[in-house]
Phytanoyl-CoA dioxygenase
Amino acid sequence: MVAGLAARGWARFGPDPELGRWAKAALPLARDALAQSPEPLRCGGTWDVGLDLLPNDAAGRVGGVALEGAAMSAIAALYGILPLHRAQLSAVYPAYPQPWEAESAAAYSYRLTRDAAHIDGLLPVGPERRRMVREPHAYILGLPLTETSEGASPPVVWDGSHLIMARAFRDAFAGHAEADLPDVDVTDAYHAARREVFATCPRVVLHAGPGEAVLIHRLALHGISPWQNGAETPEEGRIIAYFRPELPGGIAEWLKVLA
């Protein structure tokens, strides 16, 4: 599994009874948190981004149930034990995505045709919204909470894309002092690398259910696939809990491919 993450930029774990118990405990808390969230739905009412909503502790525990299993053992071997934030609860509903007023026609087209593919932690800065690395995460861990059919907007990843992205970012940061890296404009390098990824890397759909886990390399290009006609979910939609803990080593550590 760990070797697969280094070579391909993603790994799948489970079904795992320990993760299954955790997902079962997390689901009712997730339902309540999403129902009480004041944040408006995005993408024409088809996506609740659900940032920092799950009431887990720093070890990931929910309702007295520990976050354990093969995925967590692999993560600990790679990154050590990092404190976890409250998980994002990404909830997607039928007909995702739809146009909405906060998104341009070009952005909507990219969401529809390219799964809104992105690298986490690259934030749009300033009036020109230039991309800079402001949130260097250690990894992305997705834990499905609801049983769904395969067409219910599972995440997608571009196989091997982390290698292309790592090279592009290393070149963009070359010659800059480590303290200055958060202010380096990587927009052009990022867009060029993204085009290379689309042309050369296979797109992989990561459908999974409760008790499974999807681990995505922090430099892997990934996104959310559009909802397919006839896809089935429970009433609460497709919910995945995501953890992206902060990387203690900052951007210099973030650039390393094997970690």
